[in-house]
Amino acid sequence: MAELTPWQHLPVAGAVRPDTAIRPVTGGWRTGERPEADLPACVNCLLCWLYCPDSAILVESEAFNGFDLDACKGCAICAEVCPVGAIAMVAE
Amino acid sequence: MSDLRLLTGGEAVAHAMRQIDPDVVPVYPITPQTPIIQTFAKLVADGRAQTEIVNVESEHSAMSAAIGAALAGARTMTATSSQGLALMAEVVYIAASMRAPIVMALGNRALSGPINIHCDHSDSMLIRDSGVIQLFAENAQEAYDLTVIAPRLAEHPDVLLPVLVCQDGFTITHSAEPVELLPDSVVRDFIGDYRIPYSVLDVREPTTQGPFAMPDYYYEFRRQQAAASEASAAVFAELGCEFAQLAGRAYGEVEEYRLEGASTAILALGSTAGTVKDVVDELREDGEPVGLLRITSFRPFPAAAVAAALENVASVVVLDRADSPGGTPPLGAEVAAALYGSGCRLSGAVYGLGGRDLHPADIRAVFAGAAPAHIGLRGEACRV
Q1: Do B204 and B128 share a structural domain?
Q2: Which residues on A lie below 8 Å from B197 (Cβ)?
Q3: How would you class B356 by CB atoms within 10 Å of its CB: exposed for 0-12, middle for 13-18, buried for 19 or more?
Q4: Same domain, B261 and B121
Q5: Which of B28, B217, B282, B285 is least crowded, fewest Cβ atoms below 10 Å from its Cβ?
């Protein structure tokens, strides 16, 4: 549990500034399956990044770079939208 | 050089708005506020202010748009009355909690029902606990002056709260009086640039505003808001002095009128104070030790100043232009709390609901201790 802040030290009206929010690990909600990438097959279209409802697609220098499994819920939308079949759902 | 004009309170506030030149004014018309926005809209149409007027579909939308504009980084004003303020009320609370420094002009008017367009203070009192600062003008000049002071008060870093500048509907909004306008440049220099701590549209430091607060933080944000209201008293006192240097007219949280040596005093808000002053002058000529304490700042309520001003007064009568069915009327309740334990004899009366006039004879009866609990109401027996 994070330490609670007295009112005198809170930002005015509770404005939330960048990078100050708690980042809970919600990947624990995932049940059963996680995505797995076939990197040589990936064409870097980034449709998975566009569609992922949990911002769990990692991108580096505009290239697909795997999954943030701390955020991924295993919904399989990425596997569904991948045009080259480079994402498969596998058992945990 | 003095710029003295014959203006109604509504027109005077519209000229204050022209000089303030807010970036955004979302507004919906309602009697008796309409002359404010009507006059201001014409000034904007004539190119004398650069304001973006947003013609919204309701007061709820007006206040919602005002919050968005104010937090985006735009100096924002609006105006309303009665049912308009009632419809705004939900969003007024949110404006105060989001610490949006919106200046609101209010033409005080009775709340329905029965439906009525004339003055009482029930609309102001509806949002008494919203966290909004409430200043009451006695006449058109004060409505102008307080509107000029209001942006500085609202936007002060220790405050950041909406400020409601109240003027009695019709009695002030529609009555023409000589009003001295300050030069445009003086007003511009006095109010300065608009600055808020977190502007929603500042892409260098983007923020999320109005977040959900659970039981672990809601209370803290309410306390922060209450502290801002408390801090505003000192800021208003400073601004009142600074404004006096510019205009020669001083403002404070209360106005003491001939209280020296007074044994009986009336407390009142708004235009009624002007009538009471005339009666006080007449009675003083006859040797009666009477006086007036006018409350300019109803929120925050100046309890310490009220207690100090009435320290040597034996009998105090609070005149409330709003009732609280089943309870103590709002001004009376505040004064009773402020004077608790002082030993002063306190009584109160309701008057003027729905625009009923309060005559000098009524005020003389109050000073003589012969006024009923509901002044001017037919069928009401006088108290002993």
Answers
A1: yes
A2: 11-12, 15
A3: middle
A4: no
A5: B285
A9 at interface of B, judged by CB pairs closer than 8 A: no
Domain tally, chain B: 2
Split into its structural domains, chain A has a count of: 1
Residues contacting B184, CB < 8 A, separation 6+: B19
How does residue B381 score in pLDDT terms, banded at 50, 70 and 90? low
| Closest B-chain CA to A7 | B220
For position B193, what pLDDT does the model report? 97
Question: How far is it, in rounded angstroms, from Cα B344 to Cα B331?
Answer: 16
In a domain, A20, yes or no: no
Residues of A in contact with B221 (CB under 8 A): 7, 10, 13-14
CB contact under 8 A, A12 and B99: yes
Q: What pLDDT, on the 0 to 100 scale, is given for residue A16?
A: 87
SS3 per residue for B233-276: HHHHHHHHHHHHHHHCCCCCCEEEECCCCCCEEEEECCCHHHHH
In this structure, is residue B202 part of a structural domain? yes
**Cβ of B223 and A17 within 8 Å?**
no
Interface of B with A (CB under 8 A): 97-99, 160, 197-198, 205-211, 213, 216-217, 220-221, 223-224, 227
Rounded to whole angstroms, the Cα distance separating B242 from B190 reads 9
Provide the sign of the torsion angle of the four alpha carbons A68, A73, A76, A78, taken in this order.
negative
- A12 and B223: CB-CB below 8 Å? no
Task: Tell me the per-residue pLDDT of B353-377, one tens digit each, with 9 for 90 and over.
Answer: 999 999 999 999 999 998 899 999 9
Q: Which whole number is the average pLDDT over B220-245? A: 98
pLDDT band at A17 (very low <50, low <70, confident <90, very high): confident
Report CB contact under 8 Å: A18, B210.
no
CB-based burial of residue A34 (10 Å sphere; 0-12 exposed, 13-18 middle, 19+ buried)?
middle
Give the pLDDT confidence score for residue A40 in this predicted structure: 92
Please, which residues have CB within 8 angstroms of residue B165's CB and are 6 or more apart in sequence?
B13, B103, B104, B105, B106, B135, B137, B143, B146, B147, B150
**pLDDT tens string A62-92:** 899 999 999 999 999 999 999 999 999 999 8
Q: What is the mean pLDDT of residues B69-74?
A: 96
Of B207, B221, B223, Cβ closest to residue A16: B207
Domain that holds residue B172: 3-247
- Given a cut of 50, whether residue B384 has pLDDT beyond it is no
What would the pLDDT profile of B295-327 be if each residue is shown by its tens digit? 999 999 999 999 999 999 999 999 999 999 999
**A37-56 residues touching B, CB cutoff 8 A:** none
Q: What is the pTM of this model?
A: 0.88
